[in-house]
Amino acid sequence: MSNKISLGVIIGNRDFFPDRLVSEARADILALFAQLAITPILLSEEDSKLGGVETFKDAQKCAALFSLHRNEISGILVVLPNFGDEIGVAETIKLSGLDVPVLIQAYPDDLNKLDVARRRDSWCGKISVCNNLYQFGIKYTLTSAHVVHPNQPEFIAELNDFLAVCRVVKGMRKVRIGAVGARPGAFNTVRYSEKILQRHGISVTTVDLSEILGRANRLTKDDAEVIAHLDKINQYAPKGATPDEAMIQIAKLDVVLNQFVEEHALDATAIQCWTSLQKNYGCNVCTSMSMMSENMLPSACEVDVTGTLTMYAMQLASGSPSALVDWNNNYAEDPNKCVLFHCGNWAKSFLPDIEISNAPILGTSVGIENTYGALDGRTPAMPLTYGRISTDDPKGVIKVYMGEGMLTDDALNTFGNRAVAEIPNLQGLMNYVCKNGFEHHVVMNASKTVGILKEALGNYMGWEFYEHN
């Protein structure tokens, strides 16, 4: 995922500190932004003294500039080369009307430069800026070290994390999810509140499964779209023992699902994947869901809308696909390992040995011949961020739990999409999941991005967030 993004920049200044510090900071930030392909939006040196924000008039000018670029700005960086004007920073953000993440950076002093002509006092100024932002009700992000030079690798890493926070917040506030069909009757676990989601900018577009299947059945194997999608599927994964007739069924369904996504400008989908689909159409939809997830349009099974929302959030944070899985089995006697499993719709990124197959468990009730389209494959060792977003209807809130671990290469003799996860204090995590009424579905992403997600979803979105350590 590209880091090409625009940030508003406020360079704070206080009149009795050396002005050259502002010019030096401006040069530092512009060079860093060029290195990271970030577009800076800040006052020019003609707009205010050295392009800093020192007075209320400066704040007005900077706020007007930000307002002019409100559709471009994903976040704001506050730079404090000296103590800065804490009221000017807060007034700029308030007057701009922007509701975006804000990162506060302050320069360190040099012990050999604490005379009147060279001291910064940014350590103290940062506290004052944060105090004013808190008073104004403006949410903000801090660097790990209280003061840090923008040229230090630690700050560059934190700025990249901040860009990811901006992506998550911007994406989550306008995400559009398609719910295809009704949830399976036996799955109360995936119920959710559309109204609570909508209050947070998350829209759900619904469609009856019969409409999708009806459109798919009107297509023929000779239609150009079906031929094109069949070719894409064959390029995506080996067909294994899947019959040609089933491949055509899968391709026709893929055509219609992609049309639905395009027609409604959807960012993600959650699909009724059993048992109506197998009984009334004759295949699994897993391959199409895997392809969409791989192409950064996450798709969750069993109409798990908040599951696919979690997939989307993790995707925004990491820039890589996510997968919806079951907390499925213990792993022998190891208390910190478990088996993650699903019939077969994980993104190809998780399945180096991917093959189109069938779903043996589902096949026991609907006929194995009606389940072709499920994927088979084992996920190898890789980093793991796991977690779940859920609506808590009795409380009227959105709640989240997330943590980090590892996927391992431990032996696992079974079918479907499968992985072994190692998670510190896994038993404590399962206790938390059960006590707080979370679903048996969890999302995995091959990253270490909990810090980013906690800042975006907990701080800026205001959701209840539990980080498992």
Automatic annotation (TrEMBL):
Pfam families: Fucose_iso_C. SUPFAM superfamilies: FucI/AraA N-terminal and middle domains. The keyword Chloroplast does not apply. Keywords: Carbohydrate metabolism, Isomerase. Residues 340-466 form the L-fucose isomerase C-terminal domain. The keyword Cell cycle does not apply. It comes from the Bacteria. GO terms for molecular function: isomerase activity. PANTHER family: FUCOSE ISOMERASE, L-FUCOSE ISOMERASE C-TERMINAL DOMAIN-CONTAINING PROTEIN. This is L-fucose/L-arabinose isomerase family protein. It comes from Pedobacter alpinus. The lineage of its organism: Bacteria, Pseudomonadati, Bacteroidota, Sphingobacteriia, Sphingobacteriales.
